[in-house]
Specification:
mainly alpha, 3-stranded antiparallel beta sheet, 17 helices, 5 strands, 66% helix
């Protein structure tokens, strides 16, 4: 008598589901099928399109009140978006060895552009001197420095991966040159961007496997430096004071933050409709830039904001799957830096709009107005797409090779009739006549 296997109980099925949940999420229990590539690409295109739509919705009203073309910012953002998508596609087709060779030139160019800010080509916006203008085209060099620093840290730390247990190899040259980039950004009084760059440096050291004896002291020094810089500036202290609720000094310290909360509250569950928002009528300063998330909440409601958060979550999960699948230190470090850059900046912006953090002027990646930021974030995601296209083989990342033609084998009957000598003669005659 054959006994039938016992059916799994509900408790065992639930236990197995939770045991297999995380491996399924990270994709480590199944062969690569390109899902991370398409998740990153699809979410990136979706966020970019939403950003273009919201830039038009949030900027047209202010442009009309100022007597300028209401489509000016939208068209400019669209042009940079197209350039960024093209750059993303180009970078996604590059070999990993090519990206490694671009690391040092990218850092040198990034530092050079940061130095141009302090020449007559540079100018200040909102009290921060972090812009340059060349031939009528404005750009923000600190955005290029983020991508350059991520690539450079990946190349340097991967090359010294076996020596990172020693303090001097983990410290030099990453911390001095990274500190130089941060110092140049801070000289332009842009604390928000410098905090993001500090986070990128910390992510690079973390994903490189640097020990706590270097990682923790550097992190503490960076946090203390950010605190001192915040306390030493009257403008930054006023923002912190307004965040703590001191809004009655007549200087409108809480104007931007309070109207952002009003916008989110008036949106309710479903929003007031695209283009129907009221707070963008000159109530929220920089509605198309730093506080564009508030306009999304007002016009699309809680559902719209959750969609934005979900799309960022998909990008984070897909990049994390790329990190988990590969053992190449270069891929893991660069992907970790870009993950921290995009998701960390999105978290800071959303926390700033919702009142969880003081207003520090950090835009929302892929959505806020700003051509340089949009182009460079798309380029960074193009680098991750290049990694997502690679298949890890014994610690190395290799591309999917095209299928090769395989010569047809002889029928088994022919192989049985001919011995080794006759088969060699046949191959020789075939090569002469082929």
């Amino acid at each position: 008598m054959v006994s039938t296997p016992a059916r799994p109980t509900r408790q065992s099925r639930v236990r197995r589901f939770f045991r297999e949940f995380w491996p399924r999420v990270e994709g480590s229990n199944r062969p690569s099928n390109g899902s991370s590539y398409y998740l990153i690409l699809g979410s990136t295109i979706a966020l970019t399109c939403i950003g273009l739509m919201m830039v038009l919705s949030s900027s047209a009203v202010e442009s009309i009140s100022q007597g300028v073309d209401p489509y000016q910012l939208f068209l400019r953002q669209s042009i940079f978006g197209v350039i960024g998508v093209v750059l993303m596609i180009v970078l996604s087709r590059l070999r990993i060895s090519t990206l490694k060779h671009l690391a040092w030139p990218a850092l040198i160019i990034g530092i050079f552009l940061l130095l141009l800010v302090f020449t007559p080509l540079g100018f200040a916006v909102g009290g921060n001197r972090n812009w340059i203008s060349i031939g009528g085209v404005t750009a923000q060099p600190s955005e290029a420095a983020k991508l350059a620093l991520a690539l450079w840290m990946g190349a340097v730390l991967a090359r010294k991966h076996a020596l990172l247990g020693q303090f001097k190899h983990a410290f030099i040259p990453v911390v001095p040159l990274g500190g130089l980039v941060i110092a140049l950004v801070l000289l332009g009084h842009d604390l928000g961007t410098s905090v993001i760059i500090m986070a990128i440096m910390a992510a690079g050291l973390f994903f490189a496997g640097v020990g706590a004896r270097l990682f923790i002291p550097v992190g503490v020094v960076g946090a203390l430096a950010a605190l001192i810089l915040a306390l030493s500036s009257g403008n930054r202290m006023s923002r912190i004071s307004g965040w703590q609720g001191n809004c009655n000094d007549g200087n409108d310290l809480c104007l931007q933050a309070q109207n952002g909360i009003y916008a989110l509250a008036s949106g309710g569950w479903w929003g007031v409709g695209l283009g129907q928002g009221r707070q963008k009528w000159n109530w929220i300063p920089e509605a198309h830039n730093d506080f564009i998330f508030a306009i999304i909440g007002e016009e699309f409601g809680l559902l719209g904001t959750l969609v934005i958060v979900l799309l960022y979550g998909i990008i984070a999960l897909a990049i994390f799957r790329v990190i988990v699948r590969h053992t190449d230190p270069f891929i893991r470090i660069v992907s970790g830096c870009i993950l921290t850059w995009i998701i960390g900046q999105a978290f800071v912006n959303i926390a700033m709009v919702t009142g969880l953090l003081p207003v520090i002027g950090v835009p929302l990646p892929l959505i806020s107005s700003g051509g340089t930021a949009l182009t460079l974030v798309l380029a960074a995601l193009g680098v991750v797409l290049s990694f997502a296209r690679a298949i890890p083989v014994e610690g190395r990342a290799t591309r999917l090779a095209p299928l090769k033609r395989i010569a047809p084998r002889r029928p088994p009957a022919l192989r049985r009739r001919t011995g080794p000598v006759k088969q060699a003669t046949i191959r020789k005659e075939t090569s002469h006549h082929g």
